[in-house]
Each structure stands twice: as structure tokens, then as C-alpha cells.
Amino acid sequence: MKKVSGLLLVGCSALALAGCGPSDIAAPGTGGNVVVNNPAPTPSASPTPTPTPTGVVAASGCPGISASTQLKDAGVLSGPTGSYRVCTIPAVIDRSITLTKQAGLVYQLDGRVDVGCDGGFAAPTSGSPFATSTVGCPSANLTADTNVTLTIDPGVIVIAAPGATWLGVNRGNKINAVGTASQPIIFTSRDNLLGQTTDTSQGLWGGVVLMGRAPVTDCTTGTTASGNCERQTEGSTNPARFGGTDNAYSAGRMSYVQIRYSGFILSNNIELQSLTGEGVGTGTTLDHIMSFNSSDDGTEWFGGSPNMKYYVSIGADDDSLDVDTGAQMNVQYALMIQRDGLGDALFEIDSNGNEGDTPRTKLNVANFTAIQKQTSSNNESNDQAASLFRGNSDTTLINGIIATPNNECIRMNGSGSTPATLNAYSVVMTCNATKFIGTGAYSASQVSGFFNVTGRNNNDGFTSTLNGYTNGTNETGVQATDPKTISAFFDTTTWIGAVRNASDTWYAGWTCNSTFANFGTGNSGNCTSLPTT
After folding, report:
1. pTM, entire model
2. 3-state secondary structure (DSSP) of residue 139
3. How far apart (Å, rounded) are the C-alpha atoms in residues 177 and 174?
4. Per-residue pLDDT tens for 319-330?
5. Cβ contacts of residue 402 below 8 Å, gap of 6+?
6. Which among 208, 262, 203, 205 has a CA at the least distance from the CA of 233?
7. I need a surface site. Which of 1, 127, 143, 266 has the fewest CB within 10 A?
């Protein structure tokens, strides 16, 4: 701007001189001629070069899909790891589609997204339309021959718009989200991409909900006695039902999946968690699942017969594993670490208090390491301990480690005609001086008796030597129990805990790091960031 002003002044001076006569200005020796020597023009500045992009470069557009409604190009978002084309998934996925991994592209959930429509309590006969449909679903386009499967390729990132955003896989439809150890599938908040999340962020979106046709209790409609019991997804304003009679029901497969920053309150203080299983059966494959910073539970299971291996829950603000309403569940290789000073119980197993409903809630969990560092004063008053077993439930713990040096280890509530039961085999616990709490009809000494059965190799006065989450000398010296004697789903193991030693790295590659748990190099980086490959 300064250069332009100078040139304007020179130009005005030249005009003024041109209008003056010889008598006005007489310079000696010039004969009256006036010569104006304009300064040489300043060279034009070289154009600023376009900066070379760093990190991820946004894709040029969104791919096509086979659903009736295409992906919506929502523009480009940029964050610390680069720029990404954002492709919003339609609210109803009414045809089987595949979300492919493409450089510089993320898929977005914006509000509730339904995979197919509700197929009803029982599978329809071949060729007939679904018996019921969720509000807004084009059920006329969906038949038993065209059940919808959402396939997600390894390495895909799915971000969620803030608020009541969640993915619901309805009865009669499936998800096929299968990542790899080096290319996990990541469900996370949009804020994660923007670089606005921290190790304490939580509750930024809903989560993933799998709905199936396996039996449930605590019915919303029908009764367990009549065999037509159904439940409604907690907090859902439109029908999102689950339940049926198919114990082998398959909701698809989820493997090598991270779910970050979930747990948004949908309604009436009801929150979703990272992964919610509702009436899913043994045909559903679940392994290598990581929950990070859920504002509710790491995962919660309502009824059904789910099985899961290689489960990591980090930073849950409520329970790390919650099983209820008649679920018949097996879990092996579970690593559960709650954030310092927050979180509730590591386990919460119950049946919402409906003692007469069958099946009874049943959990078998083998080879687990459960770590809770906060003091009991920070626990929610209704749980009071690292593990809560109550209601119409039966729990069996095998080859486990509970490390909660500032808290009680187990609380059991004895209520109803047949209250909760507990069996433990090769389980060691590091607790405060109280160790056990009994409520209802149970006393603390009764709870201690359930745990300390002679010949089962349990120890409630164990001195933990865990190296973070990896077994130390004392853990290695504990004699294990073969979990396969409890359930055929389990592998035979000769060690207790989730992580046998430094060479046992089943968690590596597909997890993310935080201040609560560092899973080492070679994984997908920090949970506060996105991978760039």
C-alpha cells in the first residue's frame, strides 16, 4: 500500500508542473525547461508459492453406494492430521452397501442411522415383507430375500456428528465391520478429527447398537411366560425393538474395531455406550473390540447369548462391562482400565430386579485383568465396589485379576427367592481392608464364603505386581484353571489375567494410546488423534 501512495504523489507533482509557465519557475541553467526524474519503479514482489499440503489430503468426492439414497458430500474438514472429504451416510440404509477405505475420506453419521428396518420378532417367510417397520423406514423396499448388510472395510473411519447420533443395526439386518490389527475400523466423534478431544473427553455421540431376535427379559411388550417378550432400546424415541426366540441369531461381525468418545444422553438421563448388544445370539461374531472414554458403560448387553473375545475398555465413566436382562454371555481376554478418580464398577451383572423372569442373567468371564485406581468415595453410592453382582444373575469368574487397592472388591446383593450367585476359580484380588460387601439378605461374610471356596485357588489378599496391565512375578506364579471346563467357547489357558507376559501382545496394532493405558508403538496412535494411513 505504501508503494502505491508514493506513485500517486509523483503523478500529481508531474501534472502540477505541466500546468506552470516559464515565469513561474525559473531554474538557473535550464532555460526554463523543467526535467522531472521519476524514481525507478519498485520490482513487483514474487507471488507467494502455494504451500505443499501436509498430512492427509482430502479426497475429491464421495463414492457411489447401492442404497436408494446416496452418500451426501458434506465438504471438507481439516484437523491436525490433515484434511478429509466428509461423506454423510443416509438415515436409512435400505440396500446392502460397502464403505470402502479411500485416502482422505471419512464417513459421517448425522443423527440416528438405521441399517435396514426392524424385521420383527420372528424372521418372515421367504419373499414376504418384514412384519413390522421402524418409523421412517421404507419397509416396502425390504423383503426377507434382501436383508441389509452394512459392510465396512479395514481402516475406514466413521465420524459422528455431535449429539444424539448413533448407528442401529435392526433385527433381520447385519453389520460386517471387520478390520485388521494394522487397519482397525474406527468409530469416533467429529471433534476427534478436528483435534478438539482430550483424554478426558466423553459423551460426544451415541454409539453402535446391535438388535437381534435372541430371548430377553424385563419386557417392554409381551411376557417371558408367553414367549413373546420384546424390549425397546433405552432412550430411543422411535421404535428400536429387540428380542425373539433365536439363541443363534446373527447380527453380523465386528472385529478389530475402536469406538471412541461415545455415550450421549438420548433421553431421561439414559445414555448409550460404545457398543450395546440387544438380543444378539451366538451367531454374532465379536472380537478385538475397544471402547475408549464412554460416558456410560464400556459395553452393555441386554439379553441374548453374546460371546466376545479380546475386549478392551479404557476410561468408562460408568461400568466397564454391564450384563443384564437375561443375557447368557461368555467373555475371554478382557482388559478393563478405568480412569483415575472416575468410573463406577468394573463389572455390573444383574437383571434390573425382575427375579422371576427367565432366563437368568449369566456371565462367564475368563482371563481378565480389571484395574480400578480411584478411591471408594468416588464410586457411585449404589455400587460401592469394583464388582457388583445382584438380581437374578449367576456369575463365574475364571483366571482373573482384580486390582483395586483403594476400594472394596466385590459387592453382592441378596434379594428375591433365588438371589445372585458367584463362583470363582483362580481369581486373585488386591482390595482395601473391607474386601467384601453384602446387602439385602447377604452379609459380607457370606460374600467372602462364595469367593473363598476351598480348592478353587482364589486369593483375596493378593499382592499385585502388575507391570501396567501385564502380569508380573506374583501373577505368573498363580495356578490357572482350564476355562474350557466352564464353556466350550473358551480357549484352554495356563495363565491368569488378560496379558500373560511382555510377549503376549494381542492388543497391539488395533488399539489407541492414552494416559490411562499405553499400548506401545506400532498401533493406531493416540486416541486423541486419527491415523494418517
Report:
1. 0.88
2. helix
3. 10
4. 999 999 999 999
5. 346, 370, 372, 386, 387, 409, 427, 428, 429, 430, 431
6. 208
7. 1
